[in-house]
């Protein structure tokens, strides 16, 4: 869900970049669940997430970057397995795989080369992962350690806005917005500082 021989700083920055992308995509997967209620709120959202052991979905990701004249679009598959495994697999021609397992991020290329980052040696990366896992686990308390939460709307049209608390994360991510209808996530957007935007749309894994 890269063969690394550079400096620790380079590895750290690259890991931060990909975890921002993972954060964008995997938060949305965590919220793509079934179920509805007339009084839909964030508490129901967290309770539902807490009861799911694993999640898988197809995704379409659009990246709008200030340095590029045209948006970049890619597709792939997202997977989460309790307690702490996250995978983002891009379809060809990218054919890259990003996997978080415990305190380790592994980035694999199609030719088998890989780079491994230890999260416990990078506090900023650890903050990304802790927030990501808190959403997937339905752990509101842990999520609030890293983000200010704002929930709007009702079962027919709701939005959850995440604003970073942690300074390192806030320097890269302005906010994350997740919108949906009842228990179905429709769109997830990660706004980076500087205006770059990554939008992820989720589709059931068995959708045609």
Topology record:
Blueprint: H1 8-30, H2 42-50, E1 54-64, E2 72-81, E3 85-90, E4 97-101, E5 104-108, E6 114-118, H3 123-137, H4 140-146, E7 147-154, E8 157-164, H5 167-170, E9 173-181, E10 184-192, E11 197-204
Antiparallel strand pairs: 1-2, 1-11, 2-3, 3-4, 4-5, 5-6, 7-8, 8-9, 9-10, 10-11
Protein architecture, described:
The protein has 208 residues and is α+β, with helices and mostly antiparallel strands. It has helices spanning 8-30, 42-50, 123-137, 140-146, 167-170; strands at 54-64, 72-81, 85-90, 97-101, 104-108, 114-118, 147-154, 157-164, 173-181, 184-192, 197-204. It has an eleven-stranded antiparallel beta sheet with strand order 6-5-4-3-2-1-11-10-9-8-7.
Condensed summary:
The protein is an alpha+beta fold and 208 residues long.
- What top-tier CATH class fits best? Mainly Beta
Uncertain residue segments: 1-6, 26-37
CATH topology: outer membrane lipoprotein receptor (LolB), chain A
Number of domains: 1
Can you write the helix and strand succession as a string? HHEEEEEEHHEEHEEE
Which labels suit this protein?
208 residues, outer membrane lipoprotein receptor (LolB), chain A, eleven-stranded antiparallel beta sheet, globular
């Amino acid at each position: 869900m890269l063969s690394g021989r550079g400096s620790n700083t380079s590895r750290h920055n690259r890991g931060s970049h990909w975890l921002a992308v993972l954060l964008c995509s995997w938060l949305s997967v965590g919220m793509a669940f079934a179920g509805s209620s007339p009084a839909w709120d964030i508490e129901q959202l967290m309770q539902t997430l807490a009861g799911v052991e694993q999640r898988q979905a197809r995704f379409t990701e659009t990246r709008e970057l200030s340095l590029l004249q045209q948006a970049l679009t890619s597709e792939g598959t997202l997977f989460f397995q309790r307690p702490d495994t996250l995978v983002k697999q891009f379809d060809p021609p990218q054919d890259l795989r990003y996997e978080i397992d415990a305190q380790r991020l592994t980035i694999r290329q199609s030719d088998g080369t890989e780079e491994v980052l230890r999260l416990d040696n990078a506090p900023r990366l650890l903050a990304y992962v802790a927030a990501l896992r808190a959403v997937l686990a339905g752990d509101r308390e842990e999520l609030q350690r890293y983000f200010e939460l704002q929930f709007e709307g009702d079962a027919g049209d709701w939005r959850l806005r995440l604003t970073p608390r942690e300074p390192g994360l806030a320097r890269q991510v302005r906010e994350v917005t997740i919108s949906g209808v009842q228990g179905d996530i429709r769109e997830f957007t990660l706004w980076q500082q500087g205006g770059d935007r990554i939008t992820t749309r989720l589709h059931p894994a068995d959708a045609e």
